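> forwarded from #structure-qc
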């Protein structure tokens, strides 16, 4: 089986997959020998920041000398990004071998009326990969929600919940309390909980859930945050130590909060006997990379903000570092998102917008999105193809202006591929680091 054939196999279950709580996942993993039961894992849920928290946790563990696995979703450019070994996307030949070994179990499930979803299959591949590669610790990002997410069959060493906000309301509930309760579903008896920075209502729900299970809760706060254009510095407690001048190589004030959630997870692992020296914490945070999150390619800034809390964080960054008169926005959004609210936030912060649409059925047509921005008083242009949108935005911005791309991770994926090719970097995304 080739790498491309393997990826086609993975995608082939999409039309037939049928969600069934955690039962599909349990049935599939039982046929595969339950490799997840032999892994030390960190489980991370949250509306925003969970991917960044996972990346920071993994990078520090690697700096401490541990062999790591990292499972995240969605991918930005290529499927292999979702399963990482020691920070690198899984090699094509390893992915192909994994799919070949797992596929008979998928077929057995089908015969028994268990229709595995694409995400369930991807999660199973990650668990099998991490056990086969004998990673010391695997960092696992929840796909959606928490309680019924396929990753929730695991018993981790620590559960982490980053910021809870309004997203996927059609699936998780239309209040912050309902959504927080779904995220709290990853809590397990006897497993410590780390909470990232939360709104009051969400925090109350999460603390009550932890208290009901008599679980220890860790909440760390970023202090004395100093934000620079392309990195942040802050102070934080770490066990009995106070770490001053921690540097995170990611942009945006909100990354200090995500870093504190990562520190909480690392502290929980340290209490379980893992050796994570302060030097590894400093080195790992200072060298973390997470594609498509406030990532610069020259005068073009890519950000995966695709819901209201994410856009709010992006706007905080724009207010500080990008003058409105010098900034042109490229935006695409999915139909099922809070498009009006996101347009309201973004419109006052840019000179004009070029709307486009990624190659995905859920995408709002470019001309429809342009009308939403125009309703907010912003001059808007529509270009169906992402490449055309980039050319138009650059023309409007001029040689010294800034172009910001936001509104959809699908947009960021297509744009990042274009920009990497422009820079002459046509290798795998793993070979690409954010410009500093």
């Amino acid at each position: 089986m080739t790498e491309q054939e393997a990826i086609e196999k993975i995608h082939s279950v999409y039309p037939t997959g049928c969600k069934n709580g955690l039962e599909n996942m349990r049935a599939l993993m039982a046929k595969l020998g339950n490799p997840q039961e032999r892994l030390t894992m960190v489980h991370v849920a949250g509306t925003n920041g969970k991917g960044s928290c996972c990346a920071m946790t993994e990078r520090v563990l690697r700096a401490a000398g541990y062999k790591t696995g990292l499972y995240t979703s969605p991918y930005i450019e290529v499927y292999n990004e979702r399963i990482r070994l020691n920070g690198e996307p899984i090699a094509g030949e390893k992915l192909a071998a994994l799919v070949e070994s797992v596929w008979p179990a998928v077929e057995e499930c089908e015969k028994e009326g268990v229709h595995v979803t694409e995400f369930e299959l991807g999660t199973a591949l990650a668990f099998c990969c991490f056990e086969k590669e004998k990673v010391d610790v695997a960092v696992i990002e929840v796909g959606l929600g928490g309680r019924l997410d396929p990753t929730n069959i695991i018993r981790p060493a620590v559960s982490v919940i980053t910021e809870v906000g309004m997203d996927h309301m059609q699936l998780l509930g239309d209040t912050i309390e309902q959504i927080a309760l779904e995220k709290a579903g990853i809590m397990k008896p006897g497993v410590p909980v780390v909470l990232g920075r939360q709104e009051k209502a969400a925090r109350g729900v999460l603390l009550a859930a932890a208290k009901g299970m008599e679980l220890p809760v860790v909440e760390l706060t970023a202090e004395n945050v100093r934000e620079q254009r392309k990195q942040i510095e802050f102070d934080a407690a770490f066990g009995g130590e106070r770490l001053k001048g921690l540097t995170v190589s990611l942009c945006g004030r909100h990354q200090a909060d995500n870093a504190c959630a990562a520190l909480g997870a690392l502290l929980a692992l340290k209490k379980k006997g893992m050796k994570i020296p302060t030097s590894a914490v400093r080195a790992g945070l200072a060298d973390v990379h997470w594609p498509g999150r406030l990532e610069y390619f020259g005068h073009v800034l890519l950000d995966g903000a695709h819901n209201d809390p994410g856009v709010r964080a992006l706007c905080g960054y724009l207010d500080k570092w990008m003058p409105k008169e010098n900034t042109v926005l490229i935006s695409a959004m999915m139909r099922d998102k809070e498009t009006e609210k996101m347009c309201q936030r973004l419109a006052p912060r840019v000179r004009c917008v070029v709307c486009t649409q990624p190659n995905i059925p859920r995408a709002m047509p470019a001309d429809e999105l342009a009308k939403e921005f125009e309703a907010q008083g912003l001059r808007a242009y529509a270009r169906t193809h992402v490449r055309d949108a980039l050319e138009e935005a650059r023309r409007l911005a001029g040689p010294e202006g800034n172009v910001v791309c936001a509104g959809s991770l699908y947009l960021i994926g297509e744009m990042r591929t274009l920009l990497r090719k422009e820079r002459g970097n046509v290798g795998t995304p793993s070979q690409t680091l954010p410009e500093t």
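QC bot note: The chain is about 40% helix and 15% strand. The longest helix spans residues 92-111.
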